[in-house]
Amino acid sequence: MIEVLAARPSMPAAIAALRAALADGLDPSADPARAVVPVPSGQFLLMPAFWGSFAGVKVATVAPGNPARDLPRIQGEYLLLDGTTLTPLALFDGVALTSVRTAAVSALAVDCLAAPDVSRLVVFGTGPQAASHLEALREVRPVRDVVVVGRSAARTEAFASAWGARVGTAADVASADLVVCCTTSSTPLFDGALVPDGATVVAVGSHEPHVREVDAALMRRATVVVEAVDTALREAGDVVLAVSEGVLAPDVLVPLSDVVRGKVLPASGPRLFKSVGMAWEDLVVAATTYEAARGESR
Questions:
Q1: Among the listed residues 186, 179, 185, the one whose alpha carbon sits nearest the alpha carbon of residue 123
Q2: Model confidence over 156-212: pLDDT tens digits?
């Protein structure tokens, strides 16, 4: 019988599982392309993946009008399968899984890209991903000084209060060690020229090629790390638009797997991790959570 795993996956375990999977040779570029089907109220997403002795698929919906209805913008479920027989094994809350795996991948990237003692963080956004990223980054860095930038003054104040942060503006990136963009914005959130050399920027807000959270000024200066080069060139608007503008060459993009496996990056300039969220991430976290629930380990 299929198990329903209601518990939210562990953030530390998710970070560790993603690191181990990439270090052991998982190839993100082998992921099947995300299927995106436009519907009148938003999008229908289908994300299958295969890894080791497991397979899985996430079915998710994106309804931009839902927040006004007091409903989640993103909803969905994740089905974990046996990799050999394709027998269903477990069902996960797709929203909880997505929230953890997205932030866990970002934390893994930050752990590889940022100096060990960085503590000053600017967060753009006040939603579930902003909260998950704060949780995840505190697992890998001694984050103490947090600035929150949001569109709604009331929500931003409430978020800052809940997380022991202070409300700021986009100009605060000038003194940041870490900048995390967790928004639905289709235009750049800040002036990339303000980001200090040595800072690390994470952008996770979109998987669409026509929108961006960071500008050409930052893309021109930064070492750009992505989950998979082909996926970024297809889905990551921050990358796609910078390439079309001639400020970023596709051949300088660095796969996250290379960084995890020890690739040495340039010491100068900012570092940017652009994530679109990939199916292998869901599968690794779901499979690891399933094994832990059954008392198994790799």
A1: 179
A2: 999 999 999 999 999 999 999 999 999 989 999 999 999 999 999 999 988 888 999
Mean pLDDT of the chain: 94
In CATH, 114-274 is 3.10.310.70:
no
* Residue-wise pLDDT tens digits, 240-277: 999 999 999 999 999 999 999 999 898 889 999 999 99
Nearest residue to 214 via CA among 172, 183, 251, 259: 183
Six-digit token string for 1: 């019988």
Say if CB 128 and CB 41 are below 8 A apart: no
Alpha helices for the chain (secondary structure H): 11-23, 94-113, 128-140, 153-162, 216-221, 229-235, 237-244, 256-260, 279-293
Asked whether the beta carbons of 183 and 212 are under 8 A apart, the reply is: no
Q: Write the CB contacts of 68 (distance below 8 Å, at least 6 apart in sequence).
A: none
> Could you tell me which CATH class the domain 3-98+279-293 is placed in?
alpha beta
pTM of the model: 0.94
59, 60, 34, 50: which is closest to 82 by C-alpha?
A: 50
What are the extents of the domains in the chain?
3-98+279-293, 114-274
State the DSSP string of 159-199: HHHHTT-EE--GGGGGG-SEEEE-S--SS-SS-GGGSPTT-
- Decide if 157 contacts 128 (C-beta within 8 A): no
CA–CA dist 237, 196 (Å, integer): 23
Q: In a 3-state reduction of DSSP, which class is residue 80?
A: strand
In which band, very low, low, confident or very high, does the pLDDT at 297 lie, cut at 50, 70 and 90?
A: low
